[in-house]
Design goal:
By secondary structure, this protein is an alpha+beta fold. Helix content is about 30%, strand content about 15%. A 3-stranded antiparallel β-sheet has the order 1-2-3. Strand 4, helix 4 and strand 5 form a beta-alpha-beta unit. The longest helix has 12 residues. The radius of gyration is 16 Å and the shape is globular.
Length: about 150
C-alpha cells in the first residue's frame, strides 16, 4: 500500500515523465498528471466491480507532478514502526519490484519495518477490502482484534 523508498529517492527527473506508467497522462506545462479514465481499472481498481470503478473514476482529479519530481528528504520507516502491505494484484508495481524495495531498505539494518503483509488485493485495498484494511491498521497500531 505504500511505496517505501530511501531518503534521496527521486521517481522521475524534473521535467520528464520517465518511469511513469503509460496510462498516466502528463501535462508538463501545467505540472499535472491524470489517469486515463478507460485505464483506471487496470491501473488502480483491479479488484473492484465496474460500477464501483465508474464511481471513483468520476471523482478522480489531476495530481501534481511535484510528487514524482521531488526528492525524498526523510525516510519515516527508519524511525516509526512500519507495516507494509504487498498488494499481490497491484498492476502498477510488480511484486518483484516491491520485494526488491523492501529487501533493499531492510538490508540497511536501520529500520523499523516490523511487519510485511502479503495480500491478494489490488492497488486500492482501502476500497476493495475496507474491513480488512481497517482491521490490519488497528492491529498494526497495537489493538488486539478478536
Amino acid at each position: 500500500m505504500s511505496f517505501i523508498v530511501p531518503k534521496g529517492f527521486e521517481h522521475s527527473p524534473r521535467g520528464t515523465r520517465d518511469n511513469m506508467v503509460p496510462s498516466m497522462k502528463t501535462n508538463i506545462e501545467a505540472g499535472i498528471v491524470t489517469v486515463i479514465p478507460e485505464e483506471a481499472k487496470a491501473l488502480m481498481y483491479q479488484d473492484l466491480p465496474d460500477a464501483t470503478v465508474a464511481k471513483w473514476v468520476a471523482v478522480l482529479r489531476p495530481q501534481s507532478l511535484g510528487v514524482y519530481w521531488s526528492t525524498t528528504t526523510f525516510a519515516t520507516w527508519r524511525y516509526i514502526p512500519t507495516t507494509n502491505v504487498v498488494c499481490l494484484k497491484d498492476a502498477p508495481s510488480s511484486v518483484a519490484a516491491v520485494d526488491w524495495l523492501l529487501s533493499s531498505v531492510k538490508a540497511t539494518d536501520n529500520h523499523k519495518i516490523d511487519n510485511i503483509t502479503r495480500r491478494e488485493v489490488g492497488h486500492s485495498a482501502f476500497l476493495s477490502q475496507p474491513e480488512w484494511t481497517a482491521e490490519m491498521l488497528r492491529e498494526a497500531a497495537g489493538e488486539r482484534i478478536a
